[in-house]
Specification:
Layout lengths: L1 E6 L8 H17 L2 E9 H5 L10 E5 L4 H18 L3 E7 L5 H8 L6 E6 L5 H4 L10 H19 L2 E4 L2 H11 L6 E4 L11 H15 L6 E6 L8 H11 L7 E6 L3 H5 L9 E4 L3 H8 L4 E4 L5 H4 L4 H8 L3 E5 L3 H10 L2 E4 L6 H27 L7 H4 L1 H7 L5
Parallel strand pairs: 1-2, 1-4, 2-3, 4-5, 5-6, 6-7, 8-9, 8-11, 9-10, 11-12, 12-13
Helix pairs in contact: 3-4, 4-6, 8-15
Length: 402
């Protein structure tokens, strides 16, 4: 069986969306033998930029503003021709905003042959809560929201089900749109492709990367992994680090892992000598994270964050980091609370003493017996492993279409 994955997401560039989609597809192929073929519609500029490797058989069609309608309908024709030609395609996943109802309508003609699945990574309220600086002055963000809201209602009436990253996302979609009876939700968080931590390799990677980055053995490393998108709160994260470091019983460093080095250097004061700003390939990220100790995920309370499940949360988990996680992130907060993997942060100044006490306690435990902590963490990686979270979806895919 094969999946045709149709998207406007830039999955040939690095990022959380790319990571989720590629890891999910790799697990479906490796564990269940379900291959994925990608059809991607992207702006010409994105196609010409540096890209990650993508599977063979991928169709990448570029467009520009002047020929967008032509490119769009040519793209639809490519998708439907592929469906007509290949009897092994049993499902179509539609991912990304602004694909529009004409595509869904064209694919729906094959519903007796394929299952149609939406792929929802977040809430469209992001257009309103974190509007692009390019669109906000003209009110385009509100227009985009209305278009996507309309498309969502149509899509839910045509699709057989949807992938969502959190139970909160499922509840949000169910409450707002009331999908038809029998509609399927598959909760598959941004996760990892393994079920445990190889603690010996983790310790070795920690040693090697600390040496490469000039980090001393006794230094406690706070980690921010991400970019400069508004919802990622990079400025607030740096401010938080600067506030707490002076009260800790250890020397500290802040490691910022990012593809936006120049933008972040504009935020960091030249006097801050304890900050490391580096870029790493997607293949290196998990190993480099072993060099850290405290992972930070600070978010504002809004719909965008309530339904989200950041890829970085799973990477921090899998690296054995203690995670300072905002309560605004509903699903990650549940994991932190249930499995004691970090501290739930709600930006309350009155609780700063509590945060300092917790940090000093965890730092001492890590310094005394890091191996034991990694072994404990290894036992719960299955919670975020695609090997487990994809079971229901994979079983459903392999059921005969009605």
């Amino acid at each position: 069986m094969k999946i045709l994955f149709v998207t406007t997401r830039n999955i040939i560039g690095s990022g959380g969306e790319t990571s989720l989609i590629k890891k999910r597809a790799a697990t479906l192929a490796n564990k269940w033998g379900i291959e994925t073929e990608f059809y991607i519609l992207l702006p010409e500029k994105a196609v010409l930029q540096n890209r990650e490797a993508i599977d063979k058989g991928t169709l990448i069609q570029h467009c520009n503003l002047f020929i967008l309608p032509f490119s769009y309908y040519k793209f639809i024709a490519s998708v439907t021709q592929r469906l007509a030609r290949d009897p092994n395609i049993g499902a179509v996943i539609i991912s990304g905003t602004l694909l529009g109802f004409p595509l869904l309508n064209a694919i729906s003609k094959y519903k007796n042959k394929v299952k149609i699945i939406l792929d929802l990574h977040g809430a469209i309220e992001e257009f309103l809560e974190y509007p692009s600086d390019r669109f906000k002055p003209f009110g385009f963000n509100r227009l985009l929201y209305k278009i996507c809201d309309h498309d969502m209602k149509k899509a839910l009436s045509v699709a057989d089900g949807t992938l969502v990253v959190s139970n909160s996302m499922k509840e949000h979609i169910s409450t707002k749109y009331s999908p038809p009876e029998g509609f399927n939700f598959f909760i598959v968080p941004c996760g990892v492709c393994f079920d445990g931590i190889d603690t010996n390799c983790a310790i070795e990677s920690r040693k090697n990367w600390r040496h490469a980055l000039g980090i001393k053995e006794h230094e406690v490393v706070f980690v921010y992994s991400g970019g400069v998108s508004k919802w990622q709160n990079i400025k607030e994260t740096i401010e938080f680090y600067n506030r707490v470091k002076q009260y800790l019983n250890a020397e500290t460093r802040l490691m910022i892992m990012t593809n936006s080095k120049n933008s972040i250097r504009e935020i960091i004061s030249p006097e801050e000598q304890d900050v490391i700003i580096e870029s790493f390939s997607p293949q290196q990220v998990q190993e480099v994270l072993y060099a850290g100790d405290i992972g930070m995920l600070l978010r504002d309370k809004c719909i965008t964050n309530t339904v989200a499940f950041p890829n970085k949360f799973s990477e921090y988990m899998a690296a054995g980091l203690e995670i300072i996680c905002s309560t605004a992130l509903a699903e990650p907060s549940i994991i932190v609370s249930e499995y004691k993997t970090g501290y739930l942060y709600s930006d309350e100044e009155a609780r700063m003493n509590e945060i300092i006490f917790w940090l000093n306690e965890r730092i001492t435990k890590r310094q005394n017996n890091l191996l034991a902590l990694l072994n404990e963490r290894s036992k719960i990686i299955g919670v975020i492993s695609f090997n487990n979270t994809l079971v229901k979806f994979a079983d459903w895919l392999q059921e005969p279409s009605l």
